[in-house]
Structures are given as structure tokens and as C-alpha cells.
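C-alpha cells incoming
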């Protein structure tokens, strides 16, 4: 058993804490503000595999993980496996998508499956994906870890490390020092800054992401629609989550011509990170 201090209470830090506590390590997680207060709270919760085999393997591990943390945390993370469409707007795109595998729907089948889809769509690949609600997922991971005696400390930043001869002995916080055999830096875009406190240089840079929650009015979208620069995902509460909506509004979009998302936004809520 090791004493491990995890720095960062986003999805990565909480997932690491959950797993290490399952393996009976003595875990303390430090979160500067609140759990899931940054990217992990703003995310859409999309779990959509790319064509990489490791992505599909990763997605296949989710049902077991979700079952375990929902049981140990007594929380529901709203995990759903769904079907989505990846449409092609040009014959080049159609050829590339066809090579990726999955069931191909021609234009007529696409419109039958999703009457709201743009008439510009030549066809689409039907793919399986999943989604969950990120803030619940992060809190459930933390609660499951806490149920196995991990200590979750919100409002507690890591401010330094005690290191001698390349070995870590402790992590400093304003509330005092914690003894540690290992430290895991999971501070998202702040990881470089945190690692520099241990005189380690790691090349982690932030990448901006934006979401808009749209009210689709009378339009019905049954499946998620993915395209090169974004996606539309219907959520259980009736809203449609649009990724990179600002970009999508000015480019080809899977929304019907003349009825682009911008025109339909009633009470749109934007999430940015
Ligand atoms: C709008 C948007 C939509 C997205 N949608 C998706 C999606 O649908 N699917 C998907 O897979 N990904 C999505 N992402 C990406 C995903 O959210 C991130 O990759 C993921 O949340 C990163 O998690 P993290 O734990 O590494 O970082 P973060 O969530 O940023 O967590 C890092 C934590 O470290 C804390 N911290 C920083 N410094 C210290 C310190 N010194 N001491 C203690 N704590 C510290 C911060 O307060 C923060 O809480 C989206 C991102 C955005 C912004």
C-alpha cells in the first residue's frame, strides 16, 4: 500500500483516486476549488469513439466502471448507450466514412431515420456512442473513492512538493504538509504550472471548447449527429447540445437548410472552458 496524493479534482484526478482506492492505496485528493469546477464540469459528456481500436476498447469498459461507481456512490451518472449518425456532405467524405466501417445509410434512409437532417447530406454512417452527465460522474467517482477511505479535500491547493534526491516525500498545502510516496498531477491545463513546483517540465497546454444548449422547438432529433467540426446531441431534458456551435453556424451543418441552430435558440445556455 502506498500513500498517494492526487492533485486536481476533475474527471482525471477523481478517476485516478477511485481506481487507486479500489486497489487499497491510501489516497488524498487535493482540489484547489471544487470538484468538477473546470473543464470536467463544462463538458458535454460525449463518449464517442474515433476509428482507433483503443477508443472502442475504452468505451467497452464504461458499463463496468459505471455500475461500480453508481453502486459505491449511490449516485446516478445518467450513462446511456445510443446510436448516432456521421453524415457525408461530399462524395470524398462519403468514401472516407465508408472506409471507417459501420452501417452505411444512403440519403433516403438518413432522412427516414432522422427527418430533421439537412437535405445536403449524401449519406451517413450509423455508429454506437454513449454519453453521461459529467459533474455527476466526477462527484460519483470521488464519492466512490471516499467510500473506500480516500480523503477528498476541496478548497485545498497543492502549493509545493518535498523532494530529496529525486524522491517525493510530501505535498505542501496551505493547511499543512501531507506525507506521500507518490504524487499524481491531474490538474488539467494547470498541470504544467503544478509540475513546475517539483521542477518538472511537462508540455500540457489548454485547448478551448465551447458548447451551447439549444431549445430545438418542434424539431425532433432522435439520434446524435456528428460532423468534422462538431456535433448535435439530444439530451433527456429535451435540449440539444451543440459543440462548436459558433463555428458550425457559419459552415456546413447537419441542421436543415434555413433552420440552423442559431435561429432556433430560445433560452440557449453557453458553456465554455
Ligand atoms: C465545453 C467543453 C466540452 C467538452 N466536451 C467533451 C465531451 O463531450 N467528451 C469528452 O470526452 N471531453 C469533452 N471535453 C474535454 C474534457 O472536459 C476534458 O478533457 C476533461 O474534463 C479534462 O479533465 P481534467 O481532470 O484533466 O481537467 P480539469 O477538469 O480542468 O480539472 C483540473 C482540476 O485541477 C484543479 N487544480 C488546478 N491547479 C491545482 C492545484 N495547484 N491544486 C489542486 N487542484 C488544482 C482545477 O481547479 C481543476 O478542477 C470538453 C471540454 C469543454 C471545455
Amino acid at each position: 500500500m502506498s500513500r498517494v496524493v492526487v492533485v486536481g479534482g476533475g474527471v482525471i484526478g477523481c478517476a485516478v483516486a477511485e481506481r487507486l482506492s479500489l486497489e487499497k492505496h491510501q489516497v488524498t485528493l487535493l482540489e484547489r476549488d471544487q470538484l468538477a469546477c473546470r473543464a470536467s464540469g463544462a463538458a458535454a459528456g460525449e463518449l464517442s469513439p474515433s476509428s482507433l481500436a483503443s477508443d472502442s476498447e475504452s468505451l467497452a469498459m464504461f458499463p463496468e466502471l459505471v455500475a461500480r461507481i453508481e453502486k459505491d456512490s449511490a449516485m446516478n451518472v445518467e450513462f446511456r448507450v445510443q446510436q448516432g449518425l456521421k453524415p457525408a456532405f461530399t462524395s470524398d467524405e462519403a468514401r472516407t466514412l465508408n472506409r471507417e466501417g459501420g452501417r452505411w445509410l444512403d440519403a433516403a434512409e438518413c432522412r427516414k431515420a432522422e427527418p430533421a437532417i439537412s437535405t445536403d447530406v449524401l449519406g451517413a454512417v450509423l455508429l454506437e456512442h454513449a454519453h453521461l452527465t459529467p459533474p455527476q460522474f466526477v462527484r460519483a467517482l470521488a464519492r466512490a473513492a471516499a467510500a473506500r477511505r480516500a480523503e477528498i479535500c476541496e478548497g485545498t491547493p497543492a502549493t509545493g512538493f518535498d523532494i530529496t534526491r529525486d524522491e517525493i516525500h510530501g505535498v505542501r498545502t496551505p493547511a499543512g504538509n501531507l506525507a506521500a510516496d507518490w504524487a499524481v498531477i491531474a490538474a488539467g491545463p494547470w498541470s504544467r504550472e503544478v509540475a513546475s513546483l517539483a521542477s518538472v517540465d511537462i508540455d500540457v497546454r489548454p485547448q478551448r471548447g465551447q458548447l451551447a444548449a439549444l431549445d430545438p422547438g418542434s424539431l425532433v432529433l432522435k439520434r446524435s449527429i456528428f460532423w468534422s467540426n462538431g456535433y448535435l446531441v439530444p439530451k433527456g431534458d429535451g435540449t440539444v447540445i451543440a459543440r462548436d456551435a459558433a463555428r458550425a453556424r457559419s459552415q456546413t451543418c447537419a441542421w436543415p437548410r434555413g433552420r440552423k441552430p442559431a435561429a432556433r435558440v430560445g433560452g440557449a445556455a453557453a458553456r465554455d472552458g
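note: The pocket of flavin-adenine dinucleotide is lined by residues 7-13, 30-33, 37-40, 42-46, 157-158, 186-188, 190, 194, 209-211, 271, 273 (CB under 6 Å).
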